[in-house]
Amino acid sequence: xxxxxxxxxxxxxxxxxxxxxxxxxxxxxxxxxxxxxxxxxxxxxxxxxxxxxxxxxxxxxxxxxxxxxxxxxxxxxxxxxxxxxxxxxxxxxxxxxxxxxxxxxxxxxxxxxxxxxxxxxxxxxxxxxxxxxxxxxxxxxxxxxxxxxxxxx
Length: 153
Fold this sequence. Notes:
By secondary structure, the chain is mainly α. 81% of the residues lie in helices and 0% in strands. Helix 4 packs antiparallel against helix 5 (104-122). The mean pLDDT is 89.
């Protein structure tokens, strides 16, 4: 149980870090609409600042995705006592659905999240980064839901 608590705490820390990045990202996007404050804050270099904040968000998203599926794997093996036939993130997520830890809708969204995470790791394109960064807040809500439903006391 100590190992589960440790993994749960790491999952929590990852989510908290992602939450901060989401708020920073939203703030940077809002500043675009206030030209005077925008110029003063970024001194004409908004693009570089935006990319830095966005890329930080994506990096923390990647870490959270890894945390969620690895936590689910550990939970399935050690709490649900399920012998897993798979070690892949997609397989673990499907197993969690079969164990009724996840519903079908959440499972599909988690699988989409895995696809997005893989896109960020293997191919870097500005357009892809922009698309993913806009989806991260929704993925965060799902990961937070899973975290809360598997709460360890």
